[in-house]
Write a structure and sequence with these properties.
This protein is an alpha+beta fold. The chain contains 11 helices and 7 strands. The longest helix is centred in the C-terminal third of the chain and has 29 residues. It catalyses: Thiol-dependent hydrolysis of ester, thioester, amide, peptide and isopeptide bonds formed by the C-terminal Gly of ubiquitin (a 76-residue protein attached to proteins as an intracellular targeting signal).
C-alpha cells in the first residue's frame, strides 16, 4: 500500500462530500444534537448512523461483545470489513452503511468494489479497502492539513485520547453494529429499516452509559436521503433554499479544511511585529506591556470566577 490514511473530522459536511467523492448519489449526512427517536424519525428515510466515541478498553471477548451477539455468518450476506490500518475507521463506517443499502445509487466504482470483494472474508475485505487508491484518496482529500503530524508514523500512548467510528444499520431485518475492530457484525435483534430510530437509540444509550458520568466526547451522524430530492418532488421552495445554502456552506468549510494556515498566521505575526518595531522601541515595548496587562486582568477574572464556583 502506498501512502497513509489521515484523520478526518466527524462532520456532516465532510461525510456528505465523502459520499459524493466516492460516487454515491441522493444521500447525505446530518449531525444529531440530541439522542432521541423523534429526532431520527424527523430525518426519515434514515439509512444508518455513524457513532464517534472515545475508545476505552472493552470487556468484550472474541466470543461475546459487551452488548448484543456476534453474528459470524452475517458477513457472508452483508458488507462487513475488518479495520486493518489506523485512521480509516471513519470512511470504513460510512461504507458499512452505504454498501448495505440496496436502494441507494452507490455509483460504478463502489459497485465494482463491492462485487469484487463480495466473496472475501472480512479481513481480506479490509485489506482490499485499505489498498483502494480511490477510497484512500477521497478520504485523505478531506483531512485537515498539518505541518507537524505525519499520520503514517503516529502511534498512540496511554495518555492519548483515541477516537473510533462505528456504524449501525438495518440489514435483512436485523439491527447490526458494524465495527471494523470487532471479529464479526454484532446483532442487536430484529429491526426493519423504518424501525431503526426506535431500535438504535436504546443501544446507543446503553453504550454511552458504560462511560463515566460527565463524559461528553460523543458525536452522531445520520445517513439520510438527500432532502433536496423530496423538496423538489413536493415543490417545497423554502426547504430547497435552506438545503442548497447548507451545501454551499459545506463546500466553503471543506475548502478551508484542505489548507494549512500556520504559515499564513506566522507571516502575519511577523508583519505585525515588524510594523510595531518600525514605529519605534517605545511603541513596541508598550504594545508588549499592554498585552501582558490584559492577560493578567483576564487571569484575575477567571480566578475570581473559579473561587466563586468552588
Amino acid at each position: 500500500m502506498s501512502g497513509g490514511w489521515n484523520t478526518i473530522e466527524s462532520d456532516a459536511g465532510v461525510f456528505t462530500h465523502l459520499l459524493e467523492g466516492l460516487g454515491a448519489k441522493g444521500v447525505q449526512f446530518e449531525e444529531l444534537v440530541s439522542l432521541d427517536a423523534d429526532s431520527l424519525h424527523s430525518l426519515s428515510p434514515i439509512y444508518g448512523v455513524i457513532f464517534l466515541f472515545k475508545w476505552v478498553s472493552s470487556k468484550a471477548t472474541d466470543n461475546k461483545p459487551e452488548d448484543g451477539t456476534f453474528d459470524t455468518e452475517a458477513a457472508e450476506n452483508i458488507f462487513f470489513a475488518q479495520q486493518v490500518i489506523q485512521n480509516a475507521c471513519g470512511t470504513q463506517a460510512l461504507l458499512s452503511v452505504l454498501l448495505n443499502i440496496p436502494d441507494v445509487d452507490i455509483g460504478a466504482p463502489l459497485r465494482e468494489f463491492k462485487d469484487f470483494t463480495i466473496a472475501f472474508p472480512p479481513d481480506l475485505r479490509g485489506e482490499t479497502l485499505s489498498n483502494s487508491d480511490l477510497i484512500r484518496s477521497v478520504h485523505n482529500s478531506f483531512a485537515r492539513a498539518s505541518p507537524f503530524i505525519d499520520e503514517t508514523q503516529r502511534t498512540s500512548t496511554d495518555s492519548d485520547d483515541v477516537y473510533h467510528f462505528i456504524a449501525y444499520t438495518s440489514v435483512n431485518g436485523i439491527l447490526y453494529e458494524l465495527d471494523g475492530l470487532a471479529p464479526a457484525p454484532i446483532s442487536h435483534g430484529a429491526c426493519l429499516p423504518t424501525e431503526l430510530p426506535d431500535k438504535v437509540v436504546p443501544v446507543l444509550q446503553r453504550r454511552i452509559n458504560r462511560y463515566p458520568e460527565g463524559e461528553i466526547h460523543f458525536n452522531l451522524l445520520a445517513m439520510i436521503r438527500d432532502p433536496r430530492i423530496r423538496a423538489k418532488e413536493i415543490g417545497d421552495v423554502e426547504t430547497l433554499h435552506i438545503e442548497e445554502r447548507k451545501r454551499r456552506e459545506w463546500v466553503w468549510e471543506n475548502s478551508l479544511r484542505r489548507h494549512n494556515f500556520v504559515g499564513f498566521v506566522g507571516d502575519l505575526t511577523k508583519g505585525v511585529v515588524k510594523a510595531k518595531q518600525a514605529e519605534g522601541d517605545d511603541s513596541y515595548k508598550s504594545w508588549i506591556e499592554g498585552g501582558k496587562k490584559k492577560s493578567e486582568q483576564r487571569m484575575k477574572v477567571l480566578r475570581a470566577a473559579s473561587m466563586k464556583e468552588a
